[in-house]
Design goal:
30% strand; 239 residues; globular; Rossmann fold; 7 helices; four-stranded antiparallel beta sheet; 31% helix
């Protein structure tokens, strides 16, 4: 589904990503872990095609097609979608109006932990953290994507709401074969969703990729990301 080869990215004159490589298969769930300011969100925005994120080396392939310099709207048409960590407020446009405009098929809201009044409110204006995350998921499902990036989706959510929203992700996206890249610092979402592969990013470099995601996550919980840094320095960059 997605293949990233030796990707380096510069933002506002600073080199942020350095030779990042990654492969995600169709229907796979991958988690990208790392401390704050490690380059995780830069990676997400680069995959989505934000123009201020300049690729200086490497390439991005999506379903076999190179999209390295493809504009955002063309990537969206291919079925790539991104849920933001901090989605912006949009005054003057209600959530229901947006969903009707972007939906490729009628949206079934059964099973959503949704106060229907939310649909009649301006997008993210006065929304709680949980409401913003729900709004993002509703928009993504409406787009009917094939590859979804969730940037720090578990940030600011209590355990109850995180579990509810994770169940929606599983039911509405993963059961339909969508590939998923979870980007997280704390990893709370891993309590409810099992990835196929875990990656660790430090200082713009991918220092670990492992299918033994539980071992990777337990190590981080116990020792912090400093243990990953030690493995990097010793050249132990995989399982």
């Amino acid at each position: 589904m997605l293949k990233v080869e030796n990707l380096s990215v510069r933002v506002q004159g600073r080199d942020i990503l350095k030779g990042v490589s990654l492969k995600i298969g169709k229907g796979e769930v991958h988690v990208l872990l790392g401390p704050n300011a490690s380059g995780k969100s830069t990676f997400a925005y680069t995959l989505m095609g934000f123009p201020e994120y300049k690729v200086t080396q490497g390439k991005i392939l999506f379903e076999g097609k190179e999209i390295t310099h493809m504009p955002i709207e063309e990537r969206a048409k291919l079925g790539i979608a991104l849920a933001f960590q901090h989605p912006v407020a949009v005054k003057g446009v209600t959530l229901s109006r947006l969903l009707k405009r972007i939906s490729k098929q009628p949206l079934d809201l059964n099973g959503f932990p949704l106060d229907k009044s939310l649909l009649d409110r301006e997008i993210n204006v006065g929304f709680s953290g949980g409401e913003r995350k729900l709004s993002e998921i509703l928009q993504i499902i409406s787009l009917n994507p094939v590859f979804v990036i969730l940037d720090e989706f578990d940030a600011g959510l209590d355990i109850v709401n995180l579990e509810k929203l994770t169940l929606i992700i599983q039911d509405k996206l993963l059961r339909n074969g969508v590939s998923l890249l979870l980007i997280t610092h704390r990893g709370n979402i891993l309590q409810f969703l099992e990835p196929d592969v875990a990656h660790v990013m430090l200082e713009g470099e991918m220092v670990c990729s492992s299918r033994n995601w539980r071992k990777t996550w337990r190590t981080i919980l116990r020792y912090g990301y400093e243990r990953c840094r030690e493995c990097k320095e010793r050249g132990l960059l995989s399982d």
